[in-house]
Specification:
The structure is a homodimer of 386-residue chains. With 386 residues, chain A is α+β, with helices and mostly antiparallel strands. Chain A is built from 10 helices and 15 strands. Chain A folds into 2 domains: 253 residues, L-amino peptidase D-ALA esterase/amidase; 117 residues, Ubiquitin-like (UB roll), CATH 3.10.20.340. In chain A, 32% of the residues lie in helices and 23% in strands. Chains A and B meet through helix 8, helix 9, strand 13 and helix 10 of A and helix 8, helix 9, strand 13 and helix 10 of B.
Chain lengths: 386, 386
């Protein structure tokens, strides 16, 4: 059910011919109310796709009636024609749903530079077909339709004892990196929220979930995370409980994205503790997550702590490089700037990999998720345009 | 001849057993004067190897008598024992050469964490053997002895019509990235220079050569570029001519490093023009050079300009993402935020690859050198510790 598990939502996913495989490629999620609250966060890349430019304006009033998403073309760097395509998509959906175009968000994903007349015709046709197919049973089809190089759909549902729930779907397999949102995600809830509450909860949750996923260091032009609240449960949630629930959903979806990252053979969590601040812990974790030599070593099952120290040495974080401990999968191989346990005590054959870095200067911590650098990553990103 | 082409220098390279292959692994370069001027730049990584910590102190007075270099072990994160090894290496060379230990620089390269009793004994033994073998014919052996995963030595000689010359040798195949020096390089000249002149010329030349080489985004713990001036030509050079000559030598060595980068199949120059400042041009070029998706696309012979724009969109440089032109090997595939010439007009099969990015806001420019991301890069950095 995922996004239609919360009351008040319908969804659909249809094949509009954007994907050469004939698989579903246009999705619509609609909020039937009674409330039509929306919040969204966007890629911080200055090179923004047309749907991002549109949606950033449309979200200003905190009202979202529906969201239209397509795979099979990013509609990025497609000029004013591409922007008009996004506008027409919102207009088409609004007309069929009887709402204002300014309350319809649009998301696209696929190859940058794709957005010609054929693309426009297929997106508009798909939008019409998807709206005709809307139902509470359409969540799975919708999450299928936003997949690109994903090998499986990403869905999650959380039900709170307080009588409200949160659903979510996501796509993303390459270009996973931080800044803000780093993929397409739609979150729904039937809790009663104001637009300000939805916005605050969304920003707080993405900051510690999607923003901490850095699969390949490449920031996308099209990424967007949208939260829609219908209020259909009739329940005003405890806001702390809602924040916690949203973090659970976002973290679960982020981990699904990580585990399906292009070509990866290890899912790596980098836990940085003993930092002077959370920002320091994030900076240190990210410097490791982005180091190709470290990532290739993990692919080779090599607990190469020297590459970890070389990576964190490039940061501005507060620590003494000669007083740092590093553990791989529970074995401390480096302590105080020197070797500790023998490397061969470390077993890096499991897919789940945990790196613990203790900076020994404070109490702050952070957890960054990344993947290894593999032959398959190179293959997938060199053999196919995306 | 390379480093012994300028008058006043002798060199040697010997096998001391640090490399399991039995190949040469300890080099010494000595300045026979009459002047003993030295300047050096070091990695800006906060995780610095013991030879870096030593050499940064030793260079303070601008006097360098000799430099001892070893491959087969980085002597980084090896504790106070490792620092003592570096100190003893300088003492040993100083004693045999009849100079002060404080005027002997030391460089090491190899696996981080390597620097035990066996390492120390071999380095000291190799230093003694190399000093016994010093000669003006030793330049090739010295450049062989500093190789790690390099497939070939890097050497260059420049002779100026003014009666002085510059020689250079370099090593480096992985962990090539900026900050400052990013490899081991020794430069020699018989021009008469003050320590201040040598330092200024070296910083100016490395800024536009080695600092613009960003093969894999990974900054080393051991990198050092050293310039030694003997004054043996008896010629005070025109300083502008000397700066120009040093840039020629440093750029040639940087290009040799690029062309031998681990696993690379393309040597990529990224030329950024039309920038508001040189710093902007460098930032934009580096963001492209560090983008794994772009680098994998080049490996796949894919002129993926979308990934170029997505990379530069993450920078703070001054430009309008929708008014940027991008050319691959002379074919403008993107103009003003949209497609231009068809992708299939671009031939990316040659190893030499040129990307031209026109930001269209000013007159500044910069050239960044990088490589593609290949299966062989992943293989070399996952199958072997380094």
């Amino acid at each position: 059910m995922s996004i239609t598990a919360p009351a008040g939502f319908e969804a659909a996913g249809v094949a509009a011919g954007l994907k050469s495989t004939g698989k579903p490629d246009v999705a619509v999620v609609v909020n039937r109310g009674p409330q039509k609250v929306g919040a969204a966060v966007f890629t911080s890349n200055r090179a923004k796709a047309n749907p991002i430019i549109w949606s950033q304006q449309a979200i200003q009033d905190g009202v979202v009636e529906a969201i239209v998403l397509n795979s099979g073309g990013a509609n990025c760097f497609t000029g004013s024609f591409g922007f008009q395509t996004t506008h027409q998509t919102a207009e088409k959906a609004a007309e069929l749903l009887g709402v204002s175009a300014g309350d319809v968000l649009v998301c696209s994903t696929g190859l940058i530079g794709t957005g010609d007349e054929v693309f426009r015709a297929k997106v508009l046709d798909g939008t019409e077909k998807a709206i005709a197919a809307l139902s509470v049973d359409g969540a799975d089809a919708a999450s299928d339709a936003i997949m690109t190089t994903d090998s499986r759909p990403k869905r999650y549902t959380y039900a709170d004892a307080g009588g409200w729930s949160i659903g979510g779907m996501a796509k993303g397999a390459g270009m996973l990196a931080p800044g803000l949102a780093t993929m397409l995600v739609v979150l729904t809830t039937d809790a009663e929220l104001t637009a300000e509450e939805a916005d605050e909860a969304l920003r707080a949750a993405t900051r510690v979930s999607f923003d901490r996923l850095d699969s390949d260091g490449c920031m996308s032009t099209n990424d967007q995370v949208t939260l829609m609240a219908s209020g259909a449960s009739g329940v005003r949630p405890d806001l702390a409980a809602f924040h916690a629930g949203l973090v659970i959903v976002c973290t679960a979806l982020a981990e699904q994205l990580q585990s399906d990252a292009e070509g990866a053979s290890h899912d790596i969590e980098i836990v940085v503790v003993g930092a002077a601040s959370e920002d320091d812990a994030v900076e240190v974790g990210r410097s490791i997550a982005r180091n190709n030599l470290f990532k290739a070593a993990i692919f080779g099952n090599d607990p190469n702590w020297g590459r970890v120290l070389a990576a964190i040495g490039t940061t501005e974080a507060q620590f003494d490089p000669y007083n740092v401990d590093v553990s791989f999968n529970g074995v401390r191989v480096c302590t105080a700037g020197g070797p500790d346990r023998p490397r061969d005590e470390v077993d890096l054959t499991p897919r789940a990999t945990s790196i613990l870095v203790d900076l020994q200067v404070g109490d702050a911590r952070a957890r960054i998720l990344t993947n290894d650098l593999t032959h398959d990553y190179v293959h997938e990103n060199s053999a196919y345009s995306s």
